[in-house]
Design goal:
Alkaline Phosphatase, subunit A, Arylsulfatase, C-terminal domain, eight-stranded mixed beta sheet, globular, disordered C terminus
């Protein structure tokens, strides 16, 4: 059987804020995609922030393995020896295309695409440089133009990146551009279950829903084009995002609201409609797409293919995960965290003295952030956190000091340390310097830690 075309759609800051995951929002096109294929209900990312998480999707390795310990526009870069998904698919005979944003490198030519359908400078200095070239409705139209233009004699891989749902800096803080998108009445939106119901949070939820409508429209345009071009039956369509909503206790945090992400896959005739409850990490998506393409994953990847969970070919060997790992190191400040999640428990190790809940700059300077930042920043974060996700799905009660959970805490601690040792985590050597350390401290040698 010929390998499928692969069309990977991805967006910013969405989490699982979709109708198909139970959110009170109207997302008919993405929901339809999920209904027609596999929807992954426990898909998690390696980092609750953009560039590091995206680097895992494109390399199959954790950020501290591939070098992306912070944001691309913060001068962090993927290591020179990393093998990226478009490069590997190109070597397997795919024609590769990029539409919209990427945000995993400041040097887009490193990515190895055959065709770049986006206006982006050789070095993209800051995220706003692609704001206007990655809006969902416009990106969808660009994909439609290219896919409708001609025949595809070889299988293609298309990465389609949408800017929404990212905040934008405005005069009164970071907003979701209410003037650009049609938003509902804040009084009519449903509160987020992991946050208090307060006016500033409601107003931001309403603005998010305006962006979300545009995102759903962009996805719909792409899906319609596949049908019109007679490509739908031979194309594996994947929709995902890189981390949770840009709200407190989500983006920038290793709670499930931060590392939980949408993942839907459709391949007509091959994937039956299914709600997959297995633990899946975005490092696994990398290996899975390569296996669908008939290409081998590099030997040093952290992920494992879950194609065998989706396609029953008799000889496929598939073992579901018992645990997965996540963390972050740098964002707009040093925030070193590592976490392990099983089906029932979450163990979090915080390696720095920080406020109770870290807020990224775009959240801190937002309406939602203003409602909770005094409360969150008056507390000291514990160095160890443990949550029973069955009894406490929103991770409110820290059980790290509970004697009844001592065995669980110690077991997960040992598993986390073992993983850090196995993956050569730099945190084991002490604090990780920022990428511009030598520029800030040009006279300080390695002995100055």
């Amino acid at each position: 059987m010929a390998p499928p075309n692969i069309l990977l759609m991805h967006c910013h800051d969405l989490g699982r804020y979709l109708g198909c995951y139970g959110a009170a929002v109207d997302t008919p096109r993405i929901d339809g995609l999920a209904d027609e294929g596999a929807r992954f209900d426990r898909h998690f990312v390696t980092a609750p922030q953009c560039s590091p998480s995206r680097s895992s999707l494109m390399t199959g390795r954790h950020p501290h393995q591939n070098g992306m310990l912070g944001l691309a526009h913060g001068d962090w870069e993927i290591g020179p020896d990393e093998r990226l998904l478009p490069q590997l698919l190109g070597e397997a005979g795919y024609e590769t295309h990029r539409f919209g944003l990427q945000h995993i490198t400041e040097y887009p030519d490193r990515l190895g695409y055959d065709h770049e359908h986006v206006e982006e400078p050789l070095r993209a200095n800051t995220p706003p440089s692609v704001h206007e070239t990655a809006r969902a409705r416009e990106v969808g139209e660009e994909v439609a133009s290219v896919l409708s233009a001609g025949e595809h004699e070889t299988p293609f891989f298309a990465s389609v990146g949408f800017f929404e749902l990212h905040r934008v800096e405005e005069e009164d803080g970071f907003r979701f551009e209410a003037d650009r998108y049609e938003t509902p009445d804040p009084e009519r939106v449903e509160p987020l279950p992991f946050l208090p119901d307060r006016p500033g949070i409601r107003s931001d939820i309403a603005e998010v829903q305006g962006m979300l409508e545009a995102l759903d429209d962009g996805v719909g345009t792409v899906l319609d084009t596949l049908e019109q071009a007679d490509l739908a039956e031979e194309t594996l369509v994947v929709f995902t995002t890189e981390h949770g909503l840009a709200f407190p206790r989500a983006k920038g945090c290793c709670y499930d609201a931060g590392i939980g992400a949408a993942l839907a896959m459709r391949y007509p005739g091959e994937l039956e409609p299914d709600a997959v409850d297995d633990l899946v990490s975005n490092v696994d998506v990398f290996s899975t797409l390569l296996e669908f393409a008939g290409a081998e994953s590099p030997a040093n990847v952290a992920g494992r293919s879950f194609r065998g969970r989706l396609v029953d070919e008799g000889e496929e060997q598939y073992e579901p995960r018992e645990r997965l790992f996540a963390g972050m190191t740098w964002h707009d400040r040093y925030n070193p965290i590592r976490a392990v999640r099983t089906e029932r428990y979450k163990y979090v190790r915080n390696f720095w003295h920080l406020p109770g809940v870290y807020l990224t700059k775009d959240i801190y300077e937002s309406a939602a952030g203003s409602e909770v930042r005094e409360e969150y920043y008056c507390e000291q974060r514990p160095y160890v956190e443990l949550y029973d996700l069955e009894a406490d799905p929103h991770e409110r009660e820290n059980l790290a000091d509970d004697p009844d959970h001592e065995d669980v805490r110690n077991r997960l601690r040992d598993e986390l340390i073992g993983w850090m040792l196995e993956t050569d985590d730099p945190l084991l050597e002490g604090p990780v310097r920022p990428s511009d350390w030598e520029e800030i401290h040009p006279t300080m040698g390695d002995e100055q830690d």
